[in-house]
Amino acid sequence: MDDAALDLAPQATTAGEYVALLRDVRRRSGLTYREVSRRASATGHWLPPSTLATMLGRSTLPRERTVVALLAACGTTAGEVERWLTVRRDIEAHLSERDRVAIQETGTTTAPPADPAPPADPAPPAAPAPPAAPAPPADLAPPAGPVPPELVSPDVPRPARRRLRLAAVALLAVLTVGAAGTLLPRANPTTDDAPTDDCPVVLRQGMYGPCVQSLQERLVAGGLFVPVDGWFGPDTTSRLIAFQALGGLPVSGTADGRMLDELSGDLVAARWPEERVGKYVRKAFPEDPAAAVQVARCLSGLDPYRVEIAADGSRRWGVFQFSDVELSRLGVDRRTALDPVWNVRAARDVWSRTTSFEHWDCAPLP
């Protein structure tokens, strides 16, 4: 992404200027509409080429999730995406009440009135139609639909016949649309902040948007604190893995619909705050409590539910960060590793064999 395109974002003051800058971002990216759509899908967004073309072809304010999908596909950073959204919200705040209602119902502002079309050449006067015949009884009325030419009386003037055909076609279209309306479900308009069914089948690290934010809110509500910023980063992955381990679920670090259903209510029955963990560590290492707390803080921030993921995919668990290999050797599962009592006692057993903390090579946490 060309930084010059990003620097233009704060200069937009109208919906038309905002969309023009989005068009410039897409142009500078060098991506086709289909390539943008594929990249948006890879980052967890839904942006069909037709939707993108419609958005960039208008001078009306697009909805937030569509803007985020385009910018994410073009490689825009999180900070720059937030700048774009701030500009959009400022523009929306100055719209008329009618336009704000239109955004809530359709996702875009009402289109500006088009220039009046030039008057058409006057048509020659049509020949007067003959007096209408009395309507036939209902059971003898002809079926709705275009009137075949052979059923039109040859003494009816040509313009009148054309009007009859157009009326029949219009009636058939109305009946068809009405029937379709009774068969197809009616879509409920939603705002950007309301839950939608547009979420990807699987949420995974690297994605961004309201679906990820909903996942983060559920983790926090269950006692597993994580920044609720809409970004599926390492912290969210760590917390999701902790939840999966605590619940005895497959530890994948990704969330599908079933996983989101599981994320309700209290996930952690008894949350151990940092102060309580530190107190328990001091009690377990009376010989050198300060050093024990320092090591535990360095390893996990005294967070009993911390899961660290190494570059090779291996993981470390709990207060003293026992590895997958160590858990296998000790014959315990990951849920047990996240139990602060077991974790600290296991660390005490390791320490008692050497009376030193050299087993843990820890660099201070960022």
Overview of the molecule:
This protein has 366 residues and is mainly alpha-helical. Among the domains are: 3-106, no CATH class; 202-262, Muramoyl-pentapeptide Carboxypeptidase, domain 1; 274-354, Lysozyme, CATH 1.10.530. Helices cover 49% and strands 3% of the residues. The protein contains 16 helices and five strands. It has helices at residues 3-7, 15-29, 33-42, 49-56, 64-73, 78-93, 97-106, 158-183, 210-221, 234-246, 257-262, 274-284, 289-300, 324-330, 334-337, 340-354, and strands spanning 202-203, 255-256, 307-309, 315-317, 322-323. The strands form two sheets. A three-stranded antiparallel sheet has the order 3-4-5. The protein has a two-stranded antiparallel sheet with strand order 1-2. Strand 3 (307-309) and strand 4 (315-317) form a beta hairpin. Helix 3 packs across helix 4 (49-56). The longest helix is centred in the middle third of the chain and has 26 residues, at 158-183.
Describe the structure in brief.
Residues 113-151 have a biased composition (Pro residues). With 366 residues, the chain is mainly α.
Sequence-ordered SSE layout with sheet pairings:
Blueprint: H1 3-7, H2 15-29, H3 33-42, H4 49-56, H5 64-73, H6 78-93, H7 97-106, H8 158-183, E1 202-203, H9 210-221, H10 234-246, E2 255-256, H11 257-262, H12 274-284, H13 289-300, E3 307-309, E4 315-317, E5 322-323, H14 324-330, H15 334-337, H16 340-354
The residue-averaged pLDDT reads 75
Poorly predicted regions are 1-7, 105-124, 133-156, 176-197
User: Roughly what percent helix?
Assistant: 40-55%
Radius of gyration over all CA atoms, rounded: 32 Å
Tell me about the largest β-sheet.
3 strands, antiparallel
- SSE-based structural type: mainly alpha
Series of secondary-structure elements, N-terminal to C-terminal = HHHHHHHHEHHEHHHEEEHHH
- How many E-type strands? 5
Strand order of the largest sheet: 3-4-5
Total of helices: 16
